[in-house]
């Protein structure tokens, strides 16, 4: 058993520092950081439409850094943070706090993280607790170096698509596989202390997506991990408030299904899976039918409930839904501004 304290002084310090640093790194890495599978897929579609670079010979590459939260010793994380400020930030303060003070406070946080395991108290020598937003931000700053290393090799020069979600990198490759192997070999040598899981091919899994290059057309659908229980919910369902509180899950999952599934057959299979998941977790048939019908009615797509609907009509619906989500984001951004 391993325990960490969420409300101790170190945790609160890390939360404060992360509120300072995360917006800084997000602005710098804007465009090549994915927030989730939907964000990745939208950016990938935009890339394909803009550059027309998805060819029948294009390979997909994924790189997973297995020790994301324990990348390097603390002194390297601190030197990387200071180096980031000097090279990319170019300002002496962040929200009226000098960068040298931020580095010292970060050092205080890193060197005073403790956890309890098997009757003993330990201190982190590399990284920190996985529930710390600051550790994730510091890891992102460190991996920014590796991002630049890979991009500088040839990705941006050849207009390849590149991005990362936390410890999972994705990019396209239109050059020779021998050249790619040399680049990956150099990466492993340069970052020998990292543990990599690399996959190359015209079809692979990334995040919660299955992707396939079908003769220069992108095919995608929902992917579930093999060790995931088939009809599990991301929350505990029970009678009363919990079911009402989490009823939005079905709607958001249907939205994800439309975004992810390029064929109507895959969408219908995913819809059945979602309905079965709700029923297996105590939701009534009436509840499921009501929310399914409300979803299709809201998006003016009641014909989608008919199994005879053709692929062309489904693609028109997908296009309309993508436009709707884009308009929603623009509205929220304007409201926030």
Automatic annotation (TrEMBL):
It holds the Pfam family HTH_animal. Residues 1-254 form the Reverse transcriptase domain. Transmembrane segments: none annotated. PANTHER family: REVERSE TRANSCRIPTASE, REVERSE TRANSCRIPTASE DOMAIN-CONTAINING PROTEIN. This is Reverse transcriptase domain-containing protein. It comes from Rotaria magnacalcarata. The lineage of its organism: Eukaryota, Metazoa, Spiralia, Gnathifera, Rotifera.
């Amino acid at each position: 058993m391993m325990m960490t304290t969420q409300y101790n002084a170190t945790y609160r310090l890390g939360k404060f520092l992360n509120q300072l640093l995360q917006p800084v790194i997000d602005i710098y890495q804007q465009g090549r950081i994915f927030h989730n599978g939907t964000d990745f897929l939208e950016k990938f579609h935009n890339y394909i439409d803009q550059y027309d670079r998805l060819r029948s010979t294009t390979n997909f590459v994924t790189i997973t850094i297995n020790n994301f939260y324990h990348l390097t010793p603390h002194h390297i994380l601190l030197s990387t943070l200071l180096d980031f400020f000097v090279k990319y930030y170019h300002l002496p303060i962040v929200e009226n706090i000098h960068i040298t003070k931020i580095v010292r406070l970060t050092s205080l946080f890193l060197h005073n993280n403790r956890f309890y395991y098997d009757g003993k108290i330990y201190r982190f020598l590399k990284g920190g607790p996985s529930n710390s937003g600051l550790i994730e931000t510091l890891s992102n700053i460190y991996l920014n170096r590796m991002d630049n290393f890979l991009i500088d090799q040839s990705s941006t020069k050849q207009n390849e698509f590149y991005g990362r979600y936390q410890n999972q990198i994705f990019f396209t490759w239109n050059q020779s596989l021998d050249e790619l192997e040399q680049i990956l070999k150099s990466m492993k040598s340069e970052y020998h202390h990292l543990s990599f899981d690399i996959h190359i091919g015209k079809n692979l899994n990334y995040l919660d997506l299955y992707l396939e290059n079908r003769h220069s057309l992108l095919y995608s659908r929902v992917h579930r991990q093999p060790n995931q229980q088939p009809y599990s919910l991301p929350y505990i369902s029970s009678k009363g408030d919990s079911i009402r509180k989490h009823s939005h899950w079905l709607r958001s999952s249907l939205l994800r299904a439309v975004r992810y599934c390029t064929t109507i057959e895959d969408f219908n299979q995913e819809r059945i899976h979602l309905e079965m998941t709700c029923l297996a977790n105590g939701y009534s048939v009436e509840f499921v039918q009501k929310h399914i019908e409300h979803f299709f009615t809201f998006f003016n797509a009641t014909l989608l409930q008919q199994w005879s609907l053709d692929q062309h009509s489904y693609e028109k619906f997908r296009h309309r839904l993508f436009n709707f989500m884009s308009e929603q984001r623009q509205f929220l951004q304007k409201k926030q501004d």
